[in-house]
User: Fold MaoC-like domain-containing protein from Flexivirga caeni.
Amino acid sequence: MKTVELPGSPSLPKVFARAVASSRGRDGKGGLPDLQVVRRGVPIDTGALADYDHVCGYALRDAVPATYLHNLVFPLQVTLFADKSYPYPLVGSVHLDNTLTQHRPVRIGEELDLATWATNARPHKRGVQVDVVSRAHVGDELVWEGLATYLYRGQRVDGSVSEQPAGADAVDGPGMVWRLPANLGRRFAAVSGDVNPIHLNSITAKAMGFPTTIVHGMWSQARMLAAIENRLPAAFVAMASFRRPVLIPGTVRFVARRQGSDWVLALRDNSKGTVLVRGEVSPIS
Assistant:
């Protein structure tokens, strides 16, 4: 596998601009590249972490939230998407699902070796879906893994669309009501580096087929986990399925229930009850 090693954190606005500018002409031909993007010796910036915790609702602790580690690998993902060998366009892509595996808590003061690559391009009824795998090591120890599934609308890949497994209904009932301000997308972009304009500007969001500005999926997963962080085990798998866009401004209802040793989570539109995000958390024994 070819490796691109980053000496530091890239300027995400510049990498985003390069990926967007090169979106035209990316037609999926040639398949996914045998390429990984890595960055070694990455420290935890305590100031940046505190800002992130504030936006997402986490308490300030010595342990780093699992979703913040996605923040650290996200520049590697965008670098991968911007590489000329990557066959799918960033413009119009949609984050469908996100699974985080925390093998143990990462502590402030530890340095991480990060890696990201893409695999498993397969048909979807609306295009092509691709899994982007990310891993974080402390020395030789694997401490965290991420699996982000992205949909590239209108693209094609050989194969037939597999029947989607019937998912369990999202949990419902009383929960916490959160009022999401219009500037939430800009606030999360400032702490995550994800400057995709569908989260920042309603005009651009409408041009991409959304009714208005939408919340980052990773904010939704982070906020849901933050709400139960004092009940999470030290090692767990957390899954989020982004069912519908979370529009801002708006009001949502967060529901969490225990099922044995697992948590089932849902983010719903508060007035309609529509499921926006479905989540699960399972301990690793």
Summary: Helices lie at 12-21, 46-56, 66-82, 184-192, 202-207, 217-227. The mean pLDDT is 91. DSSP finds six helices and 13 strands in the chain. The first helix runs from residue 12 to 21.
